[in-house]
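Subject: sequence -> structure tokens, single chain

Hey, anyone have a minute? Need the predicted structure for the following. Not urgent.
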Amino acid sequence: MGTMAGKTVLITGGAGGIGVELAHRLRAKGANLVLTDLDEVKLTAIADELGPDHVLVAVADVCDLAAMENAVAQAVERFGGIDVVLANAGLLAFGSVLQIDPAAFKKLIDVNVLGVFHTVRAALPSVIERQGYVLIVSSLAAYAAAPGVTAYNASKAAVEHFANALRLEVAHRGVDVGSAHMSWIDTSMVNDQKANLSAFSEMLTRLPPPLGTVTSVEACGKAFVKGIERRRRRINCPGWVGVTHWIKPVLSTPLGELPVRGMIPEILPRIDAEVAALQRATRGEVAGG
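Reply:
Had a minute. Here:
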């Protein structure tokens, strides 16, 4: 793709974290932006900051296909089409399979997996017309499993393979498809969990290095933009994450699992206990409010 000047980029989850970072970086390169999220106030503030003439915001839930189709229709009407779609919206939920709230598990899958499908399904006709690029945000979690975040692991592995299959379907149409894989990122999604769940923070320090490394949003934004410009099939941030892709078969063997298995009997019950306590506190606040 070379340059982003004049290109139109649709970003889901555009009101926070990586979405905001990418919006700033891509606008600086001359791209038109279509930002979707559920937080209208934050979306509007970002548009005002970056220049409303080149930024379209749409309050849309990625779980709602019709809402995403409407956002795409607005983008096509405003900018003529979509060159890049970035399926970025996602959730993180903690708790073992025995402890996690089934509703929380389902919600995470709805956002992280079905939300990706809805985003791509809605934008793909325009991206095909412009022979553009699709980038699906997966994770290091698609390469290396971690206890206590089973739902997240499952969702990120699913969308990585979704990207692989989609690539085969649209390559002959001139469309490239990539998946992005990052270690833990210094965003509110991770920082809030570190603040609320001390066992999670400890688990990060005990994971085999560098699997517990927290990466900056700025580093991810820089890697994403470079990958988008080059239409890469994989974006790994930091670079060592790419190594885990190649040793993935080993990581799921008894030998590869050994360093993590050692901590599970002690750390997983603590994560579950803290998650349960947090849920009780939240329910109490709702009941009292």
